[in-house]
Amino acid sequence: MNKPNGSGLTRIFKAAHCSIKGFKSAFIHESAFRQELFLTALLVPASFYLARSNLHQLMLIATLFFVLFAEIINSALEALADKITLEHDELIGRAKDLGSSAVFLAISLLVLIWAEALFTKFYA
Known about the structure:
Its EC number is 2.7.1.107. The protein is an all-alpha fold.
């Protein structure tokens, strides 16, 4: 059975194209994504200063990417929910709240790990 997106390298290139479109969409339509991307641009260079090892630096950067990941998933859920209905709906509201909770957890993890890095760098 032929898949609509092809197979092999063709599928990989088409998937990459869709991913780029998704990043552009998030950047254009989601102010929270732009803010978190700005934070990432500021903190990636800071990770070189704060990290005690390559693995530690990877962990610091991973938390930044995890926040972006959660924001993209949350934005996708919200866009889909808004396409279904803009009227109040309990289940759609729950889905949006769950997406928001995912972003909150990702940001909480980032704060914990970066706070530990800062504390260790300056107070330990």
